[in-house]
Amino acid sequence: MISLELAHQLKGAGLHWQPALNDFFAIPDRGMDELVFVISDLLATLETLHSQEIVAFQGASEWALDDLATGELVWLPREDQVRQALEAALWDRGCQALRLDSDPEGDRCSFELQNQAFTFRAVPADEAYADALLHLLKL
Questions:
Q1: pTM surpassing 0.85?
Q2: Exposed, middle or buried by CB within 10 Å (0-12, 13-18, 19+), for 24?
Q3: Which end of the chain has fewer CB atoms within 10 angstroms, the N or the C?
Q4: How far does CA 64 lie from the centroid of its chain?
Q5: b/e map 49-61, b = 16+ CB within 10 Å
Q6: For 66-87, what is each residue's pLDDT tens digit?
Q7: Count of domains in the chain?
Q8: What is the per-residue pLDDT across 117-138, written as a single tens digit (0 to 9) for each?
Q9: What is the residue range of 97's domain?
Q10: Of 38, 28, 23, which is closest to residue 84 (Cα–Cα)?
């Protein structure tokens, strides 16, 4: 999953999010930036019972934030989601080849667009894809 900072930049650059089950997101500017939430149809939490870690299933969650507009949230796309968004952005611009290479120093996402080569290095791969997508969205 990409960093919150990079997710903020992608949102600001216009990356559209259609919320779906199993999507991760953050709630910025409410003192919960370090927390990652997931959209699910049943709440499951990790708890300790008699010195043993268990998964507890809850029927409803009651806390101060009953609901929020999705525009207030920041999507934290998984690697497959950010790669698909990058591929769509590239295909829309006529680029048909996207490459990811890995070595001990990290991952490299590269493509050629309008006879110009672009390479984005990061660890892990989803950050390289997100850097490339952010670059395209800002063009």
A1: no
A2: middle
A3: C
A4: 25
A5: eeeeeeeeeeeee
A6: 567 888 889 999 999 999 999 9
A7: 1
A8: 999 999 999 999 999 999 999 9
A9: 4-138
A10: 23
